[in-house]
Amino acid sequence: MMDLEILKFILVGCSGSGKTSIIHRFIYNTFKEGEDATIGLSTAVKEVTLNNGTNVKICVWDTTGQENYRSIVGQYFRDASAVIAVYDITDRESFKRMTEWVRDAKELAPSDAAIVVVANKADISENQDFDSQEGRKYAAQEKLAFMTTSAKINVGINELFSSLAEKTGGFVLRTSLRHVATEECHKYLAISEGVAGDQEEFMLLVLKGHS
Predict the structure, then answer these.
(1) CATH number, domain with residue 201
(2) Are 84 and 159 in contact (CB under 8 A)?
(3) 20 to 30 A from 98, CA-CA: which of 2, 13, 21, 153?
């Protein structure tokens, strides 16, 4: 039997932005209050079916947001299919840090990797710390896709990952790195079945790609 293609999606952003909660919602469809900060890296895998009927495995990498690990995390961009840059809409500092991660991704990730800006914690938008359009304007300026999500109330999560899978489904890991990615991903194997305005706009932009 032929091995399924593996897509490597790496989430970056400062601690507390909700990266781990986004992954848990996607993989397990659960939400846990007060997630501990990620130390180092962790991975999980989910098998999904693309619109053309092809099955792929999405290997999701959860990274630490601590600044002293930034150079280490940057090394994992090199074979990424997609980089998901997350910020907390109630924390301006997390937005600033997100832009730094995007800069790293543009420099270190493959030229054909998708990069998306994610404004997380939409469920508490009344506590938003700055203009809701700032993230959208930044993404447009950088020619990146933009998405609003909430892991808590499950807004935009499936759309985020399914659209990226459709966009990057043709991306094949470099042969020399494929076995490494497969081995690391399966340490945390969690395969399960299957996989509003912002969502529709995001899907169109992702499927067209970025320059």
Answers:
(1) 3.40.50.300
(2) no
(3) 153
